[in-house]
Amino acid sequence: MATQEEMSAALQPRTRRQKRSQAATLVLMGATPFAVLGLDPLHTDVRVFQNLQACQSALSSAPGYCESLDAEAASRHPEMAPRYTSRHQCEADFAHVTGEESCASGWCSTESLSTCESTGDGYYRPPYTSFLVDQSVLDGTYEGEQPAPESLDGSQLQPVYGISDHTLNNTGDNDNASHHSHVPFYWHYVAANGQYLGNKNLRGPVTRARTQLAANTGTTRRGGFGATAKQTMQAARS
Fold first, then answer.
1. CB 3.0-4.6 Å disulfide test: which of 10, 73, 198, 216 passes with 202?
2. CB 195 within 8 A of CB 212
């Protein structure tokens, strides 16, 4: 018959294994709330604002902070905006009507039409009007937190551009083209790197992987931006 000391020695390894198993279980259980609560560190929610006024309407308690966010996004625009070697190529992707009410008579004023601008060094880019902000930044303002806009990275704050529906949906086959394709009033939001965010009626937050919102700083786009936007739109809708 085994002595008490022998039995104790035999049980010690088993006890250690049980403790390790329990610890592993607790680690796994501790990770579960992240999935349940949707706190995925690889994804984030962002809000898209067509202009400063849209931000101030959503963040009425901190209109001045919206001005700071807008100014910082605008300062990032020259480096982050997609660039083209010709105005025609740029406007084929980005030209659209933003003020539909001014076209009621069948003629649109130049103020209502978003066209491309010269960069001053031989390229063309869509103009800056819109921007996105990480939803957590906006939520923090209700608790008095307003991080300096310049401290926010590209996935938290960046300019946003309006791309034409024709670019995203025209396949070259008139039978398959979107019924909006030749209507300049319909357009969509895309991030500076071509990531699709939603159509012009977008109001609520959008969930995207942080890598999908990575800044595209310093990259000269010589075409293909529309194809990238189209691919990301299809992926977002799948």
1. 198
2. yes
For 20, the token pair is 């390790």
The encoded tokens of residue 90 equal 């740029």
Query: Could you give the C-alpha distances from 81 to 31, 128, 192, in angstroms and in order?
Result: 38, 8, 6
Please tell me the chain's helix, strand, coil percentages from 3-state DSSP, rounded to the nearest 5: 45, 20, 40
pLDDT per residue of the chain (238 residues) written in tens, 0 to 9: 555 555 455 545 444 444 444 443 333 344 444 444 445 678 999 999 999 999 999 999 999 999 999 999 999 999 999 989 989 889 888 888 887 666 767 677 777 788 899 998 989 999 999 999 999 999 999 889 999 999 999 999 999 999 988 888 875 444 444 444 444 678 999 998 999 999 999 989 999 999 898 766 544 455 578 888 888 998 888 7
